[in-house]
Known about the structure:
Strand content: under 5%
Largest sheet: 2 strands, antiparallel
Number of helices: 9
Protein name: Tubulin polymerization promoting protein
Family: Belongs to the TPPP family.
CATH superfamily of the domain at 46-139: EF-hand
Keywords: Cytoplasm
Shape: rod-shaped
Low-confidence stretches: 19-43
Main location: cytoplasm
Subcellular location: Cytoplasm
CATH class of the domain at 46-139: Mainly Alpha
CATH architecture of the domain at 46-139: Orthogonal Bundle
Amino acid sequence: MADQNSAPLRPHSEQSKDRASKRLSTESNGTSDGGVGSSTPVEITALEESFRRFAVHGDTRATGKEMHGKNWSKLCKDCGVIDGKNITLTDVDIVFSKVKKKSCRTITYDEFKAALGELARKKYKDKSGEEAEAEVFKLIEGKSPVISGVTRAVASPTVSRLTDTTKFTGSHKERFDETGRGKGKAGRVDIVDTSGYVSGYKHQGSYEKKVTKPTAGRPM
């Protein structure tokens, strides 16, 4: 007789979802303080996701587990950690050198959080350590690297005048047609006309049409 206190069997699909959730939790905790099996707060997960995004920025070989100094500075700049008053770029560089291992040129996620803690206490002097860290975490959570846009060309009267083909003269004028489209080789090289017609003759080809005119329908 089966034990009445035993838990009922769960569908296989639910068991698969549980295993997937545990695997993702384990992978996330692999670079955090909790370790395998610990419950990581949502804000820490969001912070770690931003860490990974900045860690791989501009480096196709990066794994997202370590961040070098250039991307660390970019993160602090893009996320507003650097304010030019309490936190400057120099402060960011000093903290990076302080938390990283001497033989390394990158920082791990744990060292990243320690560096943020150092900056938080300097940025929010009127708050406690935990409150200051929470404020800095909010600045970074969910953020991605800012991609610089392509510089747009500024319209200038001088540039417009130099690029207006209707005002070209001499040999330069011959390189473009009426619409301003370049003629290519025809605009740069004198191509010899071997048609047999005089240059500028408007009825070119009319003789051939008369000769080859069909004779069908003519009276015999």
